[in-house]
Write a structure and sequence with these properties.
Helix 4 packs antiparallel against helix 11. The two termini are 22 Å apart. This protein is an all-alpha fold.
Length: 525
Amino acid sequence: MTNTVFFIVNMQGLEYKNIHLYILQDVKEFMHTDYTKKAVHGAIVVFVMSILASGFGYILRLMLAKNLIPSEFGLVYAVIACFGLIYIFQHLGLNEALTWFIATHRLREQYSRIKSAIVFVVCFQTFTAIILGLVLIVSADWFAVHYFGNSLAANLVLIHAILLVLLPFETVFQSIFQGFHFMHLYSGVNLVRVLVTLVATYGFLSVGFGVLSVFYGYLVAALVPFVVWFPLFLRRIMPQYSNLAYTVDKKLVSDLFSFGVPVIFTSVAGIVMTYTDTIMLTGYRSLEEVGLYNAAVPTASLLWVIASSLTIVTFPITTELWEKKQHAQLRAGIELLYKYAIIFIIPFALTLYIYPDLILRTLFGEAYMPAAVVLQVLSFGAVLYTIGKVNDAIFLGIGKPRISSRIAITGAVFNIVGNAVLIPSYGMFGAAISTVAGFLVMLISGLYSIRGVVLFRIPWQEWFSTLVSAGFFLGVVEYTKTLFDLPVLLEAVLCLVLGFAAYLIGLILLRAVSIAEVRSILARI
């Protein structure tokens, strides 16, 4: 179906429920193009490598939890959370802007403009990093005494100042790889960094550096871009880079900042959603509770990798389709993404909800069991977060970051207010509730806003059928738990397998998915 036909149908004033029949034809068209293969292959690569990176990152946390007491463990992540916001003002949204700039100018083969953008972003971010780093060096002792209440924090702040100066070289390469759609290299940046940090931290712990070990590990990993990514960039992506001329003119700067400045607010809001819980827990509660919370949050955030994998790939593909004015295929892709993202995330979220005690005890030990209720609450947040991230990637891809910023700020405000009200009385449970509430606000606002930009059918019926199928999953698992008297891990695996089977049967019987549709997608892959 062409864009012209869709426009005529729309102008005739047909009801939206009739228009969506035409959009379903676009879904079939999308599934028979290379974009299906490109999107799914990219998402799989990012997902697998992100899972590996998250897994090694998780091992890093476990290693720290085993070698540090809960208060020291809490101090590590309190420092990381406190200064996470500083990173946003270092890059000023230019990383996302660079991805968008590369994706659009690559189609026009304007490689000199791409080099100009890369040079500007690296220089600008390095300059701001030096300024912020000097501020941290001067104020390190003040933070240690008046906020963290721990003299060790001063050294951690000083290391962060050095990391700020090195960070732009990694994030810029990520933007380059994403913009050129080298998704294996994009996701490889995180994987290599985590692996190097893990190995280096283990070495520093072995020789007795204690709480400083992980920060020294970060420093070692920050040197990787100079050794690995820059040579790969010159050899694989832009071998002509050295011979290209570049000009940093007013239009270039304007284009980057007009896209990047709204992203700052989105990024700030994201940091607020990620770190204010820990920051406010540090202020109102004990470092032990901060440590407990930071056992539950990364466990739940393993599910966020699924959403991130989808949206990392969606961003440049959306830009490409929008730039080519292939709106019919874009609508089709959005509809498929909304449908299958939820189908995929729900059984994993239910697993966290059903077995939080087992997961935390197995991974962190008995000392972290009080965080089980936090993990249950955040498992619901993972589902909401998935849809919200899809919305965000679409807004960025079509060059409308201001909409994304407005949504993110709204969610962040709800999160901050919720934290201020709930954390003093309910601690980490209140922090988890406010986070999920913020995700819900962002989801609702995103779905409302996106329909005004790209007309498509929100798959309410399929979502409802998926939720009913999730009920089958939950019911089967809870029932079969009463039938077996097996070792805990074996019983959990058996119950989850049966629950997943019930979930798939429910999806098919309730027509959330069809075997023919799945076969068509697999055939394209």
